[in-house]
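Obj.: predict assembly geometry.
Materials: sequence records (below).
Method: joint structure prediction, all chains together.
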Amino acid sequence: MSTRVGIAGIGLHPFGRFEGTTVTEMGVVAVRAALADAGLPTEGRPPFQAAFCGTVYSGVAAGHKVLGSLGMTGTPIVDVEAGCASGGAALMLAAGAIRAGQYETVLVFGIEKMPKGIIRSSFFEPWREEAGLAATPSYFALRAQRLMRDSGVTKDDFAAVVVKNRGNGVDNPDAMFQKAVTAEAVLESRLVCDPLHLWMLCSPNEGAAAVVLRRGDHGIELASAVLRSHLPGSVLGEATPLSGLVDDDFPSPTTLAGDAAYEEAGLGPDDIDVVECQDTDAARELLAYQELDLCVPGEQAKFLDEPSVVVNPSGGLLSKGEPLGASALGQVVELVHQVRGDAGARQFDGARVGLAHTVGRGANAACVIVTR
Amino acid sequence: MTSRAVHDGLFDTRADGSIALIGGYSPSSRKYHFPLLTTCPYTGAADIERVELSTHGTLWGWTAVTAPPPGYLGAIPYGFGVVELPAEKLRVITRLTESDPTALRYGQPMRLVPDVLHTDDDGVDVVTWAFSSDTEPAARSTR
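Observations (raw structure tokens):
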């Protein structure tokens, strides 16, 4: 039996747009909240032996600036970039270090202040941007279109995902959008890249989240934290290549991460009560259902009608927005609330096992399982 | 010179103005890739031969981009999609000359064409590749 890793505390700076607030200040809010939630001191020497900070756009030593503001430096501070899965990657590194006996208490946090509009990434060479081959929503749209063709889902199903998640977001005071929408309004929003309309896409934004991990039993257990990258081949995968193979017979990074997370936790899809998954676009959530084994391919619409688990009770990224470095840990914060039973109006009664999923550039996919 | 490629090494331009994408082929892995690398992205093999890819394929996916993404200097809307090259067993991300998604269908024949993105500050046309509906089977390459 490997060493147990507990989630001793969680903290969040709301996701949204916060003009005049720096990414460092948002990080401070989340870190202080998580330390307090863990019953650890929020002032003085760091009550942890190491810190991992997930971020993509915050620049050099961004995590150091946050902990520098708190006087909590001196320990190792490692900034982790793994695209949309950065927070999950940070969590994996922290949990591994605790299991290896290196540390007793580790702070994991994620921070981001994204530029507005379509995500611009140094991943793409300037010529690819110049040629129009670097628009993230256009890749999402191709994937959505193929999903429609391969599994029979429709634009109405995409709209239903948005209606569900935005409905859940109404009860989330930390979400960017807290207003319900109708399917008609979703389908009437501006067409960005057919078949995806504006409201089917999440908004890049700002925010921070933090988690304190401790060795041993601390209420909520971190049963697994797994990061996987892509296998070569898929032209529509998150690795965003310019070419791929016609052979589709290989697992996606999400499937690799999901399978490994189930195995590490000794659990299966049937054990999961609540899921927070990557709904960067509405079709992405439906794809995650099959990649995470929540339903078989082609039964997405049925699963939406009669879900066997609760998906994105927080409102998902469609409600919260996506601050890349913080979004994965934001999911974990929601799951911990759910399995603790203190999620308020969003509470799914009896939630015991939660699965968080993020996937993005790299490709990187992270799956995290928490249990009560 | 009145035109230039958006980036070197992506395609060859022939005397008649037609173009061909430059890919790589690894005899040991028997796999093609694009753009050309020094190693096979599927096996790591270094036995890469420079090859011109088929100029004809079939449509596998498509959309249209309706707002200019960051760094893009061309016209909107523009077509964007995936064309499958059966000879190479390769799917290629590409611009499409057709920007109306309703005018396209799965599996339809497509052919490679040069596509002027924009004219730069020196009056030089910046050219990339695109695929266009192949409505003239007689003109099909025999490659």
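Conclusions so far: The longest strand of chain A covers residues 5-16.
To do: check interface contacts against the pulldown list.
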